[in-house]
Amino acid sequence: MKGIFPVDKLKEMRTPFYYYDVNILQQTLSVIRQEVAKYPGFVVHYAVKANANPKILSLISDEGLGADCVSGGEIRAAIRAGFPAQKIVFAGVGKSDWEINLALEYGIFCFNVESIPELKVINELAAAQNKVANVAFRINPDVGAHTHANITTGLAENKFGISMQDMDEVIDVSQAMKNVKFIGLHFHIGSQILDMNDFIALCNRINELQDKLEARRILVEHINVGGGLGIDYTHPNRQSIPNFREYFVTYARQLKLRSYQTLHFELGRSVVAQCGSLISRVLYVKQGTNKKFVILDAGMTDLIRPALYQAYHKIENITSDLPIETYDVVGPICESSDVFGKAIDLNKTYRGDLIALRSAGAYGEIMASGYNCRELPKGYLSDELI
Ligand code: LLP
């Protein structure tokens, strides 16, 4: 073992691959369960987009969480992993007809609807199936989040959601339709949010909207605040479980939930990020003009976050205890952005060493691509290794 890694077992395996620590995942799920239990009316859905590895999905569905899906493929994956259809919400700014039909056939809990044209299509397709679809409207709360520009979603200029000025109209339109039932409001302001003030700003906005709706005598049964709780990428060992206590208590204190309302969450990253690492082997250590490069057999095709968002993932040599040296850690792909980290301190590294890219359980394996005709990385859970 070095840190959390069973190095002797990992050494024998073909790299690169994702390694998921089941203990960390289960501890995380158990903290979520304990914290949510404090607040009757709170319901957590797992955002499948973060990681749809079938075994991970099964462990999460075994814990009783619902699923937040954004495609027909995710709905199928969730159902296959055991999530009951009645616990599935379906979001997305561009749902295809076949995806809407599939969701209707399964009888999912609710569609998070992002426009009137989409609402009309859902109404028509539901009519054709002789069904009534539950719908929640995704309202764009025009609340900024202190996170990376590419993953903030709640500002007026984003493509997501329905603007606040249009909320009354959409509700009125839906109430005149026969095959949709308006049951809730949905929000999501962004991802990797660590400043609770951002969530407080969302709560304040929802409180205002709720007051306006109440003045119109419109009752909303379900409020869905999306996901977004961030994790500690710098210290995956020190904080392997995100601060769910602080997160849920923020909503409990700040959001004026009515007694008849249910509050839904869609958590992705905070559930699965810290249990996963991308394990890779060092192909070469190369001396450049001014620095040394560690060239890995994993690249941006396996973990795209550093290239796409300049995201930081802690990098560790899990097979060396030698004194620290400084390297640029790069992948083998023919793109100059295929860099995992610059000026990284690692135990002195040689060809054949194993390198772990930490906190990669969310938006890692699922975002892998086959660019350069590379094989997709496989994912293994710690309890599968013999
Ligand atoms: N609900 C909605 C409507 C969302 O758009 C998202 C994420 C979530 C829930 C889950 O958010 P989380 O709890 O994971 O923050 N690929 C990017 C992240 C994109 C997030 C997209 N939406 C990354 O690697 O950082």
List the helices and strands and how they pair.
Blueprint: H1 7-11, E1 17-20, H2 22-37, E2 42-47, H3 54-62, E3 66-69, H4 72-80, E4 88-90, H5 97-106, E5 110-113, H6 116-128, E6 133-140, E7 162-163, H7 167-175, E8 180-186, H8 196-215, E9 222-224, H9 244-254, E10 262-267, H10 269-272, E11 276-287, E12 292-296, H11 305-309, E13 315-317, E14 324-330, E15 339-347, E16 354-357, E17 378-381
Parallel strand pairs: 1-17, 2-3, 2-10, 3-4, 4-5, 5-6, 6-7, 6-8, 8-9, 9-10, 12-14
Antiparallel strand pairs: 1-11, 11-12, 11-16, 13-16, 14-15
Helix pairs in contact: 5-6, 8-9
Bound molecules: ligand LLP.
In short:
The protein has helices at 7-11, 22-37, 54-62, 72-80, 97-106, 116-128, 167-175, 196-215, 244-254, 269-272, 305-309, and strands spanning 17-20, 42-47, 66-69, 88-90, 110-113, 133-140, 162-163, 180-186, 222-224, 262-267, 276-287, 292-296, 315-317, 324-330, 339-347, 354-357, 378-381.
What does this structure look like?
- The protein is of the alpha/beta class.
- The protein has two domains: 7-15 and 274-384, Lyase, Ornithine Decarboxylase, Chain A, domain 1, CATH 2.40.37; 22-273, TIM Barrel.
- The chain has helices at residues 7-11, 22-37, 54-62, 72-80, 97-106, 116-128, 167-175, 196-215, 244-254, 269-272, 305-309, and strands spanning 17-20, 42-47, 66-69, 88-90, 110-113, 133-140, 162-163, 180-186, 222-224, 262-267, 276-287, 292-296, 315-317, 324-330, 339-347, 354-357, 378-381.
- Helix 5 crosses helix 6 (116-128) and helix 8 (196-215) runs parallel beside helix 9.
- The longest helix has 20 residues, at 196-215.
- Ligand LLP binds at residues 47, 50, 68, 91, 151, 153, 188, 191-192, 226-229, 266-270, 305, 309, 363.
